[in-house]
Specification:
The complex is a heterodimer of chains A (314) and B (252). With 314 residues, chain A is α/β, with parallel strands linked by helices. Chain A has 11 helices and 14 strands. In chain A, 37% of the residues lie in helices and 29% in strands. In chain A, strand 1 and strand 2 (14-24) form a beta hairpin. By secondary structure, chain B is mainly alpha-helical. Chain B has one domain. Classes of the chains: A alpha/beta (314), B mainly alpha (252).
């Protein structure tokens, strides 16, 4: 559905997006994840033809976004960040205007379709209200209804749950999951739990580059095997740390702190695929140290995110 | 064309649904009334070669109206879309920058034309109460409204350009006002200094002086050179506006 090749956007002095390539297949719900300023909005603007890339191409449903711009735009429902709307228009009036603009025939067809999307997004009760008086949650839904109105194959949503309260977030998420059954969805967010709950696949970008791509579960599994082991040993923290450093292979980092009662808490990070628990146990046995805890922390997507995006900063 | 009509309808509604529209309409009617009154008083005092129509339009009151209208009707057009961010939703829908620019321009022109309609009432009411004794030469009427319309096209296109350059309506309004006044002053200066200039330059000065244009047209002479001048500058400003709106899409 989306086929982005080598997208680059350079502004005077800095590169917002750098050689980004990815594909999104029909029917997928893909989360676009990255810290603030990672290039998410810039990328989405290039996908929707609002900004031209400095180099690279985007094809939506087979149409080049700049060569066949109008045709590509007909396949996209886009909700920009902060949901810009005309405050002086009423909800139904606005949706009818947008529906006609996006090619729905005036009169009965547009009225019918607007009724459907208002029902779907829970806007029926506020249909006569001016957009200016709506709460943030309702504005967000009007934006979503606008994105949906021409029944596009692809929905591109820039931070759809930004600024909503937990109940509203839950509603919008439910809506997106339902939409995902019939549409392809690309949504950006920096809320990790959102991606874990709604998306089939995650693209993590940082500094304008693609850092990781995969199912949320696979990504956290990757980190898990490269994960962290916590051991609580009755020993001097420094001695314990040195002994572990000496014997564990594929070690990345050891961190030991002392706990009351002569205990040491050692946190061990290793390369992917290494499980240091047996080695640690053997060290403890040979040194005659008592072990009261030896466990692996399962990584959440948050760990993946921090791991991937912090590497660059360090 | 369909897209143009949808956008045009929305813009036109935005004009007529807003209270500002009626304030502007009221203001223009009051100023027209003063212009008309001044014209009648002038003709009462002394004999003149010009008609009632001529002295209504070729007067300081007319210029007051003229300067006030354009910033008020054009400042909102693009600046507000930019401020709200709705330019992004418009230009990611199947809408071209040309459709956007021409629809906004056309709606503003229609609104502008409507602003001048009530001024016709003055003339016809006057003719009615004087039982036809008042002289309303059709040439002067047609000429006056033609030049007012042509100058309107030019200034509205200028206002569109100013509005497309900023997200602040005040800046757009002041820019439009400034350039409308500069254009007027250039013409005024040229007409005044004409006597000092070599006769060969006279034609050049006449070409861009709005003061001369107004005098010619209100006397009932339709000068196509002036019409071509305003029409071509309007097109130029609209092309520039289009370039500004499309500017994000320029590929480096």
């Amino acid at each position: 559905m989306i086929d982005a090749t080598d997208l680059t956007k350079r502004y005077a002095g800095h590169t917002a997006v750098n050689g980004l390539s990815f594909e999104v297949g029909r029917g997928e719900i893909v989360g676009f994840l990255g810290p603030n300023g990672a290039g998410k909005t810039t990328t989405m603007r290039m996908l929707t033809s609002y900004l031209p890339p400095t180099s690279g191409t985007v094809r939506i449903a087979g149409y080049d976004v700049f060569e066949d711009s109008m045709e590509a735009r007909r396949h996209i429902g886009y909700m920009p960040e902060n949901v810009p709307l005309y405050d002086e228009m009423r909800v139904r009036e606005y949706l009818r205007f947008r529906g006609k603009l996006k090619g729905i025939k005036g009169g009965r067809p547009v009225r019918k379709r607007v009724g459907e999307v208002m029902e779907l997004c829970g806007l029926t009760d506020v249909r006569r209200k001016p957009i200016a008086v709506l709460s943030k949650g309702f504005r967000q839904r009007v934006g979503l209804a606008d994105a949906l109105i021409h029944n596009p194959d692809l929905l591109i949503l820039d931070e759809p749950t930004n600024g909503l309260d937990p109940n509203q977030i839950r509603q919008i998420r439910g809506l997106i999951r339902d939409l995902g059954k019939e549409h392809t969805v690309l949504l950006s967010t920096h809320i990790l739990s959102e991606v874990e709950m709604t998306c089939d696949r995650v693209l993590i970008i940082n500094g304008g580059k693609l850092k990781a791509s995969g199912r949320p579960k696979d990504l956290s599994d990757d980190i898990r095997t490269a994960g962290r082991v916590i051991a609580e040993i009755k020993a001097d923290p420094k001695l314990a740390a040195t002994a572990i450093e000496k014997h564990v292979k594929g070690l990345r980092k050891v961190n030991a702190t002392s706990l009351p009662g002569g205990w040491a808490r050692v946190s061990v990070r290793t390369e992917a695929g290494v499980d240091p628990r047996e080695t640690i146990h053997n060290i403890a046995v040979s040194e005659r140290w008592t072990v009261r805890e030896l466990s692996r922390k399962s990584a959440s997507l948050e760990d993946v995110f921090v791991e991937i995006t912090q590497d660059d900063l360090a | 064309m369909r897209t143009f009509l949808i956008l045009f309808g929305k813009e036109l509604r935005a004009f007529f649904y807003s209270p500002v529209a009626y304030i502007v309409l009221g203001l223009v009617m009051v100023l027209n009334g003063f212009a008309f009154n001044a014209s009648v008083s002038f003709l009462q005092r002394e004999a003149s070669g010009g008609s009632l129509v001529k002295w209504t339009f070729d007067s300081p009151w007319f210029y007051l109206t003229y300067f006030a209208i354009f910033p008020l009707i054009t400042m909102r057009l693009f600046a507000e879309e930019r401020r709200l961010g709705t330019l992004e939703t418009l230009l990611t829908a199947p809408v071209s920058a040309w459709q956007l620019v021409t629809s906004k321009f056309s709606a503003a022109v229609i609104f502008y034309a409507v602003l001048w309609l009530p001024s016709l009432i003055n003339f016809f009411v006057f003719q009615y109460v004087t039982a036809g004794a008042a002289d309303l030469p059709p040439g002067a009427l047609i000429g006056s409204y033609t030049i007012v319309f042509a100058m309107g096209l030019f200034n509205i296109a200028l206002g569109c350009l100013a509005s497309s350059l900023t997200s602040n309506q005040m800046i757009a309004a002041i820019t439009t006002l400034t350039f409308t006044i500069i254009h007027y002053l250039l013409g005024l200066f040229a007409s005044t200094a004409k006597r000092l200039l070599p006769p060969s330059s006279e034609e050049l000065v006449d070409y861009f002086s709005s003061v001369t244009h107004l005098q010619t047209f209100t006397s009932g002479l339709l000068d196509t050179r002036a019409l071509v001048y305003y029409a071509s500058l309007s097109v130029l400003f609209l092309v520039l506006t289009h370039q500004v709106v499309e500017f994000r899409r320029w590929k480096s």
